[in-house]
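Worked problem 6 (solution included).
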Amino acid sequence: DDDERHLVERIPDRFRLFYWTPIGLARGRVASALRLLRRSDLAPLRAPASELLEWLAAFRPDAAVELDYASVSDLFTWDELDNDHSGRDIQQAVEAIGEPGAMAKAAELYQAVAGRWADAMSRESLN
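Solution. The predicted structure is:
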């Protein structure tokens, strides 16, 4: 969720993007996504979602989850990080899976995130 998104300056001109959420919300989101995936044609995504839900279940109910871009943030400019709302975009793509006739919208949202990350992923694999 964008409310859980934090863009901070680590040192001058070096920024870090991370998301922080209570584990209960994270579990609920993954469980909801799994329900939608079970009713869709996206069978290959069910196993990773199930594994993620099992992993989250191992933590105490008062825990939190942090998705931290960490040093990956250095691959992006401040403007790119400021404009990166991958968490929101993926959530919207998952929600679209459950809407009648919205699979094209889900694919478009997912492809936007994949495109945004393509250059960073290629640089990481080269290094």
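Discussion: The radius of gyration is 16 Å.
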